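Q: My labmate handed me this sequence with no annotations at all. I'd like to see what the chain might look like in three dimensions before we decide whether it's worth expressing. Could you predict it?
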Amino acid sequence: MRLLNVAAESTNWNPVTDKIRTFVDSGVLITAARGSGESANDALAILDDPDREFVSSFFIRLEVIPKPSYFNRESELSFYNNFFDAVAIWADPKGILDDALSTACKFGLSAVDSLHIAAALSAGATEFITTELPTKPLHRVPDIRVTTIWLDRIS
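A: Here is what I predict for the chain of 155 residues:
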């Protein structure tokens, strides 16, 4: 698996379950559901990793569910719903808005990325896996390990 960790080192194990508490962004789910090649394999390997416990939010669901629903892409929709059924911890969307704004201002994040980071942190995630390149503002956040699956695009 070709993953790049571009954030500060921190412990990433949940001592209660002995699993890595992981938040994956919508790009990882879309890559796993629709992609092909190494990046899709990497995304699927992360999602199939038995040493991970997944954290998510309503905002991720909002990003990935509407299009396959509208266009009747049943297998893609089923893939996403299976992932969401396996999520162990859901972030409270109302409780993260102030943190999202603060994080966006401090690190120059987009609105959606700041919501995802705030959701991940509020739910105790220790790793945030994304398709964003290391040059993007998302990788500036030091409070969580940010990992990208797009090594084949980095040159």
